[in-house]
Specification:
44% of the residues lie in helices and 16% in strands. It has ten helices and nine strands. The strands form two sheets. It has a seven-stranded parallel beta sheet, sandwiched between helices. A two-stranded antiparallel sheet has the order 6-7. Helix 3 packs across helix 4. It is globular, with a radius of gyration of 18 Å.
C-alpha cells in the first residue's frame, strides 16, 4: 500500500463511553482551525457519532449563514456488501491524498475494520475513563497490590500492530506508530484511586510503549454542543462562556500539544 502525505490519527478503544468521538471531533476541528486540511472517516455505521456531529456543524453553518473550519467526513460501513479490507485501505488512501491529517473514529467494540485502521495509524489515540474498569482493556492488576499482572488482549493486539508497522516502516520509509493513552474525565476520580491508576498506567506504559496524556474532563458542555455541531473553539458563536468552559478549552490545547503532531508549532498549539 502506498504511503500518502496525510498523518493518520486513529481514535480506538474497544470499550464505549470513553469520550472517543467527542475527543476525535475536537481534535479534528482544532487542526482545521490551525489551517490544516482535515478529513475524517467514521467506522461506526450504526451510531455514526462523528459523522452526525459534522452533519450538525454543516447544518448550523447553513442556518446561521456562517463559515467555520470543518473537516470533511464520510462513513465507512465495513458490514456492507463489497466493503472489505481492500476497500477500506483504498478509502484511507483516497482521503490521505488530499489532506494534511486523516482522522479515523472507530466503534467502541471489537471490529475488524478498526484493527486495520489501527495498523495504518501514525498516531493511535486510546481514550479511557480514569477507572480500573477501563484500565482492564489494556491490562489486569492484582486486587490487593494494584500491580500489573498481565497485558490484556487489546494491548497485545496493539503491540502486534506496532511490530507490523515497524516492519512496514523498514520497507516503506514510514514512521513508527505512536500510541497515546488519553485519560478523560479525570475530575471525578477519587484521589487514592487516581494515584493507584497513575502508578499502574506508568508501569504499563513502560512494558507496552505507549505515552500518557491528559484528555477532556467530564463537562455538560460537550453534550450540549453536539446538536449544533459546535466546539469549544468556535468563539463568538457559543454565547457567554463560564470559567469551566475556558478551562475546558485549555484542556483541549494541552491535548493537542501532547499528541506531538507533525507540522504543528507552538504558535498553532496556543491558538
Amino acid at each position: 500500500m502506498s504511503h500518502n502525505r496525510a498523518h493518520r490519527i486513529v481514535f480506538a478503544n474497544e470499550k464505549g463511553g470513553t469520550g472517543k468521538s467527542t475527543t476525535a471531533v475536537h481534535v479534528a476541528v482544532a487542526l482545521a482551525y490551525m489551517g490544516k486540511t482535515v478529513a475524517a472517516i467514521d467506522l461506526d455505521p450504526r451510531q455514526r457519532t462523528m459523522h452526525r456531529y459534522i452533519e450538525n456543524r454543516e447544518a448550523i453553518q447553513a442556518k446561521r449563514g456562517i463559515e467555520l473550519p470543518t473537516p470533511t467526513c464520510e462513513v465507512f460501513d465495513g458490514t456492507a456488501a463489497g466493503q472489505d479490507e481492500k476497500t477500506l485501505e483504498a478509502t484511507l488512501d483516497r482521503f490521505a491524498q488530499t489532506a494534511d491529517f486523516l482522522i479515523v473514529d472507530t466503534p467502541g467494540r471489537d471490529d475488524p475494520m478498526a484493527r486495520i485502521a489501527a495498523e495504518q495509524a501514525d498516531t493511535l489515540v486510546t481514550p479511557m475513563n480514569d477507572s480500573f474498569v477501563d484500565f482492564d482493556l489494556i491490562g489486569q492488576v492484582d486486587a490487593e497490590t494494584f500491580k500489573v499482572k498481565k497485558l490484556s488482549f487489546y494491548a497485545e493486539l496493539i503491540w502486534e500492530a506496532r511490530l507490523k508497522r515497524s516492519r512496514m516502516g523498514l520497507e516503506q520509509d514510514r514512521r513508527e506508530l505512536d500510541w497515546v493513552v488519553v485519560r478523560n474525565r479525570t475530575g471525578y476520580t477519587e484521589a487514592r484511586n487516581m494515584a493507584r491508576l497513575e502508578k499502574a498506567l506508568a508501569e504499563m506504559s513502560k512494558r507496552v510503549g505507549f505515552r500518557i496524556a491528559k484528555g477532556l474532563s467530564e463537562r455538560v458542555i460537550y453534550r450540549e454542543l453536539f446538536p449544533s455541531g459546535l466546539t469549544l473553539l468556535d468563539k463568538g458563536h457559543l454565547g457567554d462562556l463560564g470559567t469551566s468552559h475556558l478551562v475546558a478549552r485549555q484542556e483541549l490545547r494541552g491535548l493537542i500539544a501532547s499528541l506531538r503532531l507533525p507540522g504543528i508549532g507552538l504558535e498553532d498549539k496556543a491558538a
